[in-house]
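User: Can you predict the 3D structure for this chain?
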Amino acid sequence: MKKSAKPVVSSKPRPQRRSASSPRPIPQANPIELPDGMGERIARKAYELYEQRGRQEGRALDDWLEAEVIVMEEIHEARE
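Assistant: Here is the predicted structure, written as structure tokens:
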């Protein structure tokens, strides 16, 4: 006697799929333009952080983001 395989039915509803003809629009980011010299200042600070860490590869984005914070704090403190 053969056993018939029963399909597995989930009690959870399946999420609805969007058709290719009606995809959700992707918002476009407007790039922020930095004041003159700001990008160079951040790049120098990011390189300093890279050197302080012993030139460890793979952390360029972390260095850049940390450098942005540091430079912005320096500018803020200079304005007070």
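The longest helix spans residues 60-79. The helical segments are 38-52, 60-79.
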